[in-house]
Amino acid sequence: MLPALSRVAVCGGTHGNELSGVYLVHERLKRRKKSQVMEPVAVVTVMSNPRAVQRCVRYTETDLNRCFTHAMLSLSASEQTSYELVRSQELNSLLGPKGSAEAMDLICDLHNTTANMGLCLITYSDSDWICLHICKYLQARAQHPRTDVRYIHYDIPRSEAYSLDSVGKHGFAMEIGPQPHGLIRANIFMAMQEAVQLLLDWVRLFNSGAQFEGGSVDVYTLVKNIDYPRDPHTHTIIAAVHPDLQDRDFCLLHPGDPMFLSFSGETLRYKGKEPLYPFFINESAYYEKAVALSLARRRKVEIPAIRSSRM
Amino acid sequence: MLKDSLQSNVSACVSLQWRRMKPLISLNMELITLPALHRMAVCGGTHGNEMSGVFLVPELERQRKEKGDAIWPIPLTTVLSNPQAIKECKRYVDKDLNRCFTSAILSSPITDSTPYEVRRAQELNTLLGPKQTNDAIDMICDLHNTTANMGLSIICYSHTNWICLHIFKYLQAKITTVPVRLVLLNIPIGDAYSLESVSKYGISLEVGPQPQGVVRADIFNAMKEGVNAVLDWVKNFNSGEVIEGGDVEAFMFKKTVDYPRDPETKTPIAAVHPQLQDRDFCLLKRGDPMFLTFSGETVRYEEEEPLHPVFINEAAYYEKGIAFHLAQKQPWTIPSIQAKKV
User: Fold this and answer.
1) Quick one: which of A147, A236, B41, B340 is 20 to 30 A from B109 by CA?
2) Does a structural domain hold residue A13?
3) What is the CA radius of gyration of chain A?
4) Is residue A1 part of a domain?
């Protein structure tokens, strides 16, 4: 038995050049203006970083989606040295405060990636039954177009969790790729639109007292990030993700498998001891964060049946 | 009369005339002698977030350091065109560098408020030009990427640029890993706005699809293969052998199509239709789907004339009001050429 989710937020444009979320938020705000539709669930629709959206850049000064740790949300006005640091506190007032009883019940933050990841729900917990059940529901129903749905877990305590979705009591980033930044692909937009609709359907059903049967969900937990090989003096990248690994997110990487192909033609191989699952392979925004790909362990998590406690 | 029909707007009627005249022209096409190529440049990072060129230029320099200049058939200058944009991994800082090479902009006075790229264009014109003079470098090969599914496309300004058309013919025969196509922009050289127009025989190599800010190994390799093939061709040409003419097919830009937009906010209200997305160079006929609005409606191509869409969904063109270009497929017969021994 879990409390109903009475307040839900759908956020887009947290990165201003990830356009599926930007246009989805536009459309939702436009439809609300036009028809005053009363949705069965109170949904707050937010354009997270309007300035970055207007310029069609990931961020203007600081990556907004790294500004939601407790420490950064507690900075004084004089310490908020960028637009995004100010904006993160505004969003925390609107959708939080993080960690308090007033925070949104559920935040769904919309993102795109250049990596071939299908649809992923990315969150900080591997035992949040709400998020896991939502994942299970989407996996069964995301068909138009047919989309692979996976659950990614970053094992970080809530206070250090740095992304917007951590402001809500429950939350996840809904990440869809592959899509280049700064453009919109119709099939990716439709997949995100359907997923958001399914999410809101699930919330409505949950709130109405429906029981969701237990089962199991594969959870990918981040183990480590791998950087590009770099020139020791200039620090510039000297290799690209190997063609045998490019676009093969969630295909098991074994020790000895090709990982990088240098610009001069040499293959560099995975030197780890443990086979792991790669994801965020060749995400353009991660070059500056020194991440060529992330590696995860996969395990099955058993989830109980859940039902909302009637108010 | 032939020259007029080549330069006029091509209509179905004119191209039929051209096809009828072809046998006559083949008989009259003599062997054309051209000066050998003495110096060339390979430029990358003209757009700072088109990464194949950004990484291929230093790789060429590494090869030069390792094996010496003799690996190339002629003296090769490598250039990172827009260093500031490369540093920031952006297309440009103030203004699109690849629109700054018209004669007008190259001769405009520099003031305190001159955009970074205009200054840089004038520097590059000094280094590789001056444009339209005898001192200009013989060839610039400018490297670009696109988010559109265009394989390896060679872009050049004029259908009478025999060097460029022959390079295309050679690359199309030699390269099998990606489709190779020729895109022609019929713009007089003074109005030509891009970097390669500074040289006597300039071409752009455009390889896609690749997101901006990303380097894909397969796309990088296609670009490397393209540059190596251009260098091979230069070696063959300069050796004095006769390069046989023949038929080539070019896509000539005719017009652009913008996204449907909200009349008040001007923001796009549709995306390229899934049935058109990634289908660059296909034939778009009347009634074919073009766009899918965010509310689910299909917008169709209404024109009579079937044309070929190119640069479908190029991220950098959203701000230029372009969803895709439409091109006409045009056959050309190119003469045999031979380098003049000096």
Assistant:
1) B41
2) yes
3) 20
4) no
User: A132 and A226: one domain?
Assistant: no
A175 and A210 in a common domain: yes
Q: Tell me the residues of B at the A interface, defined by beta carbons under 8 Å apart.
A: 55-56, 58-59, 62-63, 89, 147, 209-218, 220-221, 267-268, 271-274, 277, 292, 294-295, 313-316, 318-319
Question: Domain range spanning residue A154?
Answer: 7-218
Residue with tokens 């025969």: B173
CA distances from A192 to A5, A21, A119, A147, A175 (A): 21, 8, 8, 10, 9
Write down the pLDDT at residue B240: 95
| Helix residue ranges, H only, chain B | 2-7, 12-28, 51-67, 83-88, 103-106, 116-128, 162-174, 217-238
* Contact call for residues B220 and A263 (beta carbons, < 8 A): yes
* Nearest chain A alpha carbon to B212: A180
The contacts of residue A179 (CB under 8 Å, 6+ apart) are: A18, A19, A20, A112, A113, A114, A185, A188
Distance CA A126, CA A301 (A): 8
Q: In this model, does residue B24 exceed pLDDT 90?
A: no
Same domain, A175 and A230: no
A200 and A286, same structural domain? no
Are A138 and A232 in the same domain?
no
Q: Which residues lie closer than 8 Å to A135 by C-beta, 6 or more apart?
A: A121, A149, A150, A151, A217
Same-domain pairing of A192 and A267: no
Among A177, A197, A218, which residue terminates a domain? A218
- Asked if A33 and A170 sit in the same domain, the reply is yes
Residue in chain B nearest A114 by alpha carbon: B211
Number of cross-chain residue pairs from A and B with Cβ atoms under 8 Å apart: 90
Closest CA to A123 of A171, A160, A178, A77: A171
Whether A289 contacts chain B with CB within 8 A:
no
Question: Model's pTM, two decimal places?
Answer: 0.92
Q: Is A235 annotated as a binding residue?
A: no
Query: How many domains are there within chain A?
Result: 2
The tokens of A184 are what?
């919109």
**ipTM of predicted assembly, 2 dp:** 0.94
Query: Which of the residue ranges A95-104, A141-150, B265-274, B326-335 would you say has the lowest mean pLDDT?
Result: A141-150
- Integer-rounded Cα Rg, in Å, for chain B is 20
Q: What is the pLDDT of residues A52-70, one digit of tens each?
A: 999 999 999 999 999 999 9
CA angle B238, B242, B244 (to 5 degrees): 120
* Residue A305 belongs to some domain of the structure: no
- Return the closest-CA partner of residue A200 out of A50, A79, A44: A44
Among residues A164, A191, A218, which one ends one of the domains? A218
Q: CATH number, domain at A131?
A: 3.40.630.10
- Is residue B56's pLDDT more than 70? yes
| A153 marked as part of a ligand binding site | no
Do A122 and A180 lie in a common domain? yes
Helix axis angle, B217-238 to B162-174, nearest 10°: 120
Active site positions of A, annotated: 175
